[in-house]
Amino acid sequence: MTANATRVLVLNSGSSSLKYQLLDMSDTQSTGGSAAGRLAVGLVERIGEETSRLAHTPLATGGDKRETEGPIADHEAALKAVAAELAADGLGLDSPELAAIGHRVVHGGLKFTAPTVIDDAVLKEIERLVPVAPLHNPANLIGIRTAQALRPDLPQVAVFDTAFHTTMPEYAARYAIDVATADAHRIRRYGFHGTSHAYVSRKTAALLGKDPSEVNVIVLHLGNGASASAVAGGRCVDTSMGLTPLEGLVMGTRSGDIDPAVTFHLKRVAGMSTDEIDVLLNKKSGLVGLCGDNDMREIRRRIDEGDERAELAFDIYIHRLKKYIGAYTAVLGRVDAVAFTAGVGENAAPVREAALAGLEELGMAVDASLNAVRSDEPRLISPEYARVAVAVVPTDEELEIAQQTYALVNA
Ligand code: ADP
To answer: What is the pLDDT of residue 27?
Structure first.
């Protein structure tokens, strides 16, 4: 790596999408991680379809967002199109200033507890984990292989969604099922959104003026996918997602916790296949299953118009959230902060208010006027007297991936 190589390209490859950001780490370090370090951001959607779409914003040049539509056959073509956009801004992937490419990888199993420079053995292990992450790891692998082909000389780093949760004690990670069966099939709770839980718990400590080792935080990552974690002194001790991202909170389209016997019942009584049940619970459940909408803005609008289905969906969502807040309060013993993040957590004041309503006995309360403030900055929304700080902390998974990648290649 050349001395002035300070840029990191972050790639997040989904099954039909590719999100990317190019960051300058010399800037992000000097500005404490603000947007100043972001050179370009973008997204390729509907890869493999006739109507693929690339949206690219060249922040470095202050240029406008550029959108192009037209067929992009696969991830290789998508990354090449992204490279061409970056090159048009003088930020090409052939630049000596590019230090590394950081890849979001969803499932790292038990082996990957930290960001890892990718070699053939790492690729094999990510591939070996495909059975436990059939939707995500294959797309991540394609992204890595494509980037390697484009810049074989450059370090490529995998940052795993599961890594932050590998500190969970065995009694939190293991399901109460036959040990031999569980071990033979690697069935245990892995947890996801770890990059976000790590970033947000650290930022929350900073907001309180404390070191992460000094505080216990409940992080509520409420996006379309949603998960809660209990973080004690900077280490994750429990999280709501499990073997897959299906367990835990009510999500946009996922059921979260249900009695596992529901699945046998659907098979035996409703005659559904395993794949049909998979689609039902992952794509047609949660808020969308309950009321037909998964966007919290739309759900709130419908509630304001008196829509009872939307209201029940909201109440079920909040009830589950509250149960996890209570459970993680018990797990942690002492809670210093509850932090809300991601699309719903950062924006939906009614969700924050309802989730903590009635929890004054636990030291938790929300100040209505602070809760109503809209901001991109980390902030406290609890009243001064409250024993537990309630925070809204915008997550930044790309920055966290870039920082971990940059730190690793400079180590
Ligand atoms: P993901 O990364 O899981 O796709 P996000 O963290 O971007 O999801 O969250 C997306 C969700 O955030 C949307 O489905 C919507 O419910 C919610 N959301 C976004 N903006 C707002 C807003 N202004 N008010 C309420 N909810 C919002």
So the answer is: 64
